[in-house]
Write a structure and sequence with these properties.
mainly alpha; about 0% strand
């Protein structure tokens, strides 16, 4: 066969170029094709439970050294850092999974561990309403997603009202993030119970005496281990200083990591009138959520361990009842499929690029009352 004939034969037999998938049903089918097997899920859950044991051990040892020992202050300060790491990991790797029913197969185990949120100072009952009903179901939808409602402190979406002081929000917002945990402890939960509203939306559930008692008990437990017990062994000024410092650092990390997935210049902020149910849900999450890659061989593994599944929020939003230890493998599968089919899957190339993306978005939302509904794909 001549070269010309061979080339013509190859042209006839070569596959058609891949047509980008745009139909919601096609993208949803793509997601279903990468779902894990039962064995994979069971293995990931065992890894999650082993990780939880390690987190608990870090917390107990660090707490004992800081609160009960009389070691030198540099050692006790290092123990305080250990408590911060453990508290963040409890929030991302135990509380988060348990409140989604992903930590264990048994419901009572998930329910028991969901109260770690209360022990950390934030009501698990209110958290589930805001996180499940408002945020997951309506990601980045103004008026419905309470996680993007920071007024009058900041403006995070184009359709939110603009105020003159937002011009500086890309500067002043960072230290304020650290006080979100204390705000939830002392203000936000109480206001939500009093007004029966979260993020401008009704709770949708009755606030009974039992609910109030559980939320109050949680805050008592938190103050018990975090303030009252330390006061028995340490001067008040040291307890106050370490409590505020640890709360601020943990609150900063948790608040910023949550923002990096949604409030960046690479995601979209759809109108409330759009469909976000059934097959459309997959497309909605792909448009409003951005993962965080962690390629560094030194920082990457620790970052991934610390933030649990919050660096793979796309798959978390699509299957929140799966243990987060399964997310990296599942995200890679889905990302590969999306790339092959021409479907945009947003990924920050690293932690620092993700922070810069959030800073750019804060600046953009601060200087103008108009803004785009979203930026280009980030990966």
């Amino acid at each position: 066969m001549s070269d010309t004939a061979l080339n013509r034969s190859q042209e006839r037999t070569s596959p058609e170029p891949i047509r980008p998938l745009t139909a919601a049903s096609d993208v949803a089918s793509l997601w279903r094709s990468v779902l894990p097997t039962g064995a994979e899920e069971a293995s990931a859950r065992r890894r999650l439970q082993a990780k939880a044991g390690l987190i608990g051990l870090v917390f107990i040892i660090s707490y004992g050294v800081l609160v009960l020992s009389h070691l030198a202050w540099p050692i006790r300060t290092a123990a305080a850092a250990g408590i911060v790491v453990a508290v963040i990991a409890i929030g991302t790797g135990i509380m988060h999974d348990a409140n989604h029913g992903a930590f264990a197969r048994r419901r009572w185990v998930n329910q028991a561990l969901s109260y770690t949120s209360d022990a950390l100072g934030a009501s698990s009952w209110l958290w589930r309403i805001q996180h499940h009903k408002l945020h997951h179901a309506n990601t980045n939808v103004v008026g419905l997603d309470g996680d993007i409602s920071l007024a009058p402190l900041a403006r995070l979406a184009p359709s939110q009202p603009w105020r003159p002081w937002y011009r500086a929000q890309h500067i002043y917002i960072w230290p304020f993030y650290g006080f979100m945990a204390i705000k939830n402890l002392l203000v936000s939960d109480i206001v939500a119970l009093a007004t029966r509203r979260l993020g401008g939306q009704p709770l949708g559930r009755p606030v009974t005496a039992g609910v109030v008692a559980k939320i109050t008990a949680g805050k008592v437990v938190h103050f018990g281990w975090a303030v009252a017990l330390p006061l028995l062994f340490n001067p008040w000024w040291a307890v106050l200083a370490f409590y505020v410092a640890c709360s601020w650092v943990a609150g900063s990390v948790l608040a910023v990591v949550f923002q990096l997935a949604h409030c960046v210049d690479t995601t979209e902020f759809p109108d409330a009138v759009g469909d976000r149910r059934r097959d459309e849900f997959v497309l909605h999450q792909l448009r409003t959520t951005c993962d965080i890659d962690s390629p560094s061989p030194v920082v990457g593994p620790f970052f991934r361990w610390l933030v649990g599944g919050l660096d793979h929020q796309v798959v978390h939003h699509l299957s929140p009842r799966l243990p987060h230890t399964l997310y990296p493998a599942l995200a890679q599968r889905f990302r590969d499929q999306c790339q092959q089919q021409g479907v945009a899957y947003r990924v920050h190339p690293g932690v620092w690029p993700a922070i810069r993306s959030h800073a750019r978005w804060l600046r953009q939302m601060g200087v103008s009352t108009a803004g785009a509904s979203g930026g280009p794909s980030c990966g």
